């Protein structure tokens, strides 16, 4: 038996346009639908052939070292007890992050930094070994704890501002953030004299942890007075419309 | 003697770094080139390739030999990663794009995968097999495979009813398959 309602979602499934719930529903359908299974397998096979036919591009110099280096370095981070005494940065890092919380953040954080503006990547790499990113976050700026607006919430968020080459980078880490409705996002705002400035979108993972790294490139001299997190109906909002869930004054 | 993909995969699953390195060297260029086709960005392509091998090494998702070649599996992971990374990037950099944008609704549907691919479209060498298709079919294949459009985005872009997208796609892919098979016969049997 197949249900066309679901079969019609195959394109959106393959191209990553379903939200988490829809995707889970579709995967259930997929297990039971030989038509969709066959079509998906054919799409993947054909795509692989197209990929093999694609014009070859030379990978950048040093990519292998960087990629494998990062993979194996993260491996070490993931181990419970890295004993390499020569790696002083990491060793020190171990001492300052007792809870392991920041260690867990290293993975998404490294990804976030890669995603941020290219200039930042080189800047960060130049300043810090990737293994001590969390250390940089904690020690390099003043950490501010945000408080939940509602007493009943046990959400946690910490942030720090970093001055780098005339621009400010906001780093924010969140814990215990609840799932939002479809389309909604957590949005970080910086405020000066009640004027809001968008400072990144926060997407918590399944365990409610999230992070954002946001560079404010034309606001280097602003002394912000408040940081706030709202729930917005759309990531495109230029001004906050949703409720403030957490905030802190500088 | 070189090891087969299956042997390399087994080795790396057991934690043998050398196996991951060998697999990496074997597929770096292929996956990088493909990621570049999807993202049109060298930086993002490197990020995608790293993400792929990170997932392989950290055993997120398992390869099943019964389901096809390892390289096909790697290409599928690469594709998903390119889509994810491009869309996530879009959120992170929204501030910059939005300032110059008069029509944010339109832009919402225009992730970097799509935007950049469009940018490079005329310079891009399209796969030979795709070039043999008629214009609409070329377009649907490109939108579907390389821009990862949704069904409704494809309908909008081609100005056709939503309900006809899948059948049009099937037809185009059927022709594409016919165009590819002769080439495949001359290709290598075992990778
Ligand atoms: Zn189906």
TrEMBL record, chain A:
Q: Taking the first listed entry, what is the main subcellular location of this protein, grouped into a coarse class?
A: membrane
Enumerate the InterPro entries for this protein: Anti-sigma-K/W_factor (IPR051474), Anti_sigma_zinc_sf (IPR041916), RskA_C (IPR018764), Znf_put (IPR027383)
**How is it placed in the membrane, per its record?**
Single-pass membrane protein
| Bias type Basic and acidic residues, positions | 79-94
Gene Ontology molecular functions: sigma factor antagonist activity
Keyword vocabulary terms for this entry? Cell membrane, Membrane, Transmembrane, Transmembrane helix
Q: Return the Gene3D superfamilies for the record.
A: Anti-sigma factor, zinc-finger domain (1.10.10.1320)
Q: In this protein, which residues make up the domain named Putative zinc-finger? A: 8-37
**Per the UniProt entry, what are the Gene Ontology biological process annotations, in alphabetical order?**
regulation of translation
Q: Provide the species name.
A: Salinicoccus sediminis
User: Can you give the residue ranges of the Anti-sigma K factor RskA C-terminal domain?
Assistant: 108-244
Q: Which Pfam families does the UniProt entry name for this protein?
A: RskA_C (PF10099), zf-HC2 (PF13490)
Entry GO terms, CC: plasma membrane
Compartment(s) of residence: Cell membrane; Membrane
The transmembrane segments are 105-124
The molecule here is called: Anti-sigma-W factor RsiW
**Keyword Transmembrane helix set for record:** yes
Residue ranges for the region (Disordered) are: 71-94
Q: According to its UniProt record, which protein family does this protein belong to?
A: Belongs to the zinc-associated anti-sigma factor (ZAS) superfamily. Anti-sigma-W factor family.
Determine the domain of life of the protein's source. Answer: Bacteria
PANTHER family named in the record: ANTI-SIGMA-K FACTOR RSKA (PTHR37461)
UniProtKB/TrEMBL annotation, chain B:
Q: Which residues cross the membrane?
A: none
Q: Which CDD domains match?
A: Sigma70_r4
Name of the protein described by the UniProt record: RNA polymerase sigma factor
Q: Which GO terms describe its molecular function?
A: DNA binding; sigma factor activity
**Domain RNA polymerase sigma factor 70 region 4 type intervals:** 124-176
User: Where in the numbering of this chain does the RNA polymerase sigma-70 region domain appear?
Assistant: 23-90
Keyword Nucleus in the entry? The reply is: no
Renumbered residue ranges of the record's region Disordered: 99-121
Which biological process annotations from GO are given for this protein?
DNA-templated transcription initiation; response to stress
Asked if the keyword Phosphoprotein belongs to this entry, the reply reads no
Q: Which family does it belong to?
A: Belongs to the sigma-70 factor family. ECF subfamily.
Keyword list (alphabetical) reads: DNA-binding, Sigma factor, Transcription, Transcription regulation
User: Which InterPro entries does the UniProt record give?
Assistant: RNA_pol_sigma-70-like, RNA_pol_sigma-70_dom, RNA_pol_sigma70_ECF_CS, RNA_pol_sigma70_r2, RNA_pol_sigma70_r4_t2, RNA_pol_sigma_r2, RNA_pol_sigma_r3/r4-like, WH-like_DNA-bd_sf
């Amino acid at each position: 038996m197949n249900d066309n309602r679901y079969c019609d979602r195959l394109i959106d499934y393959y191209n990553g346009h379903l939200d988490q719930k829809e995707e889970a529903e579709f995967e259930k359908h997929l297990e039971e639908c030989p038509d969709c299974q066959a079509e998906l397998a054919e799409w993947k096979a054909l795509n692989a052939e197209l990929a093999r036919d694609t014009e070859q591009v030379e990978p950048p110099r040093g990519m292998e070292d960087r990629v494998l280096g990062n993979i194996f370095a993260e491996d070490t981070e993931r181990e419970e007890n890295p004993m390499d005494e020569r790696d002083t940065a990491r060793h020190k890092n171990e001492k300052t992050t007792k809870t392991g919380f920041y260690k867990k953040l290293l993975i998404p954080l490294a990804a976030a930094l890669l995603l941020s503006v290219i200039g930042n990547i080189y800047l960060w790499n130049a300043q810090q070994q990737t293994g001590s990113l969390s250390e940089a976050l904690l020690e390099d700026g003043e950490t501010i704890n945000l408080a939940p607006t509602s007493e009943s919430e046990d959400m946690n968020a910490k942030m720090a501002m970093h001055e780098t080459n005339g621009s400010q980078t906001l780093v924010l880490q969140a814990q215990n953030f609840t799932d939002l409705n479809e389309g909604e996002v957590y949005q970080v705002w910086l405020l000066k004299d009640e004027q809001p400035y968008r400072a990144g979108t926060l997407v918590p993972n399944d365990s409610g942890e999230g992070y954002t790294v946001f560079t404010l490139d034309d606001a280097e001299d602003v002394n912000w007075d408040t940081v706030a997190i709202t729930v917005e109906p759309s990531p495109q909002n230029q001004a906050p419309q949703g409720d403030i869930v957490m905030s802190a004054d500088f | 003697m070189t090891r087969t993909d299956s042997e390399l995969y087994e080795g790396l699953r057991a934690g043998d770094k050398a196996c991951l390195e060998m697999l990496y060297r074997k597929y770096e260029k292929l996956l990088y080139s493909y990621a570049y086709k999807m993202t049109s960005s060298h930086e993002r392509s490197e990020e995608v390739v790293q993400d792929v091998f990170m997932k392989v090494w950290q055993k997120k998702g398992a390869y099943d030999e019964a389901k096809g070649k390892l390289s096909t599996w790697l290409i599928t992971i690469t594709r998903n990663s390119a889509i994810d990374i491009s869309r996530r990037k879009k959120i992170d950099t929204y501030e910059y794009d939005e300032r110059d944008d008069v029509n944010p609704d339109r832009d919402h549907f225009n992730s970097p995968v799509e935007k950049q691919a469009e940018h490079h479209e005329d310079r891009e060498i399209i796969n030979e097999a795709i070039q043999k298709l008629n214009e609409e079919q070329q377009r649907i294949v490109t939108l579907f495979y390389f821009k990862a459009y949704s069904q409704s985005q494809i309908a909008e872009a081609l100005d056709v009813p939503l309900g006809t997208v899948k059948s049009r796609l099937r037809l185009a892919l059927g022709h594409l398959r016919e165009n590819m098979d002769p080439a495949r016969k001359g290709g290598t049997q075992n990778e």
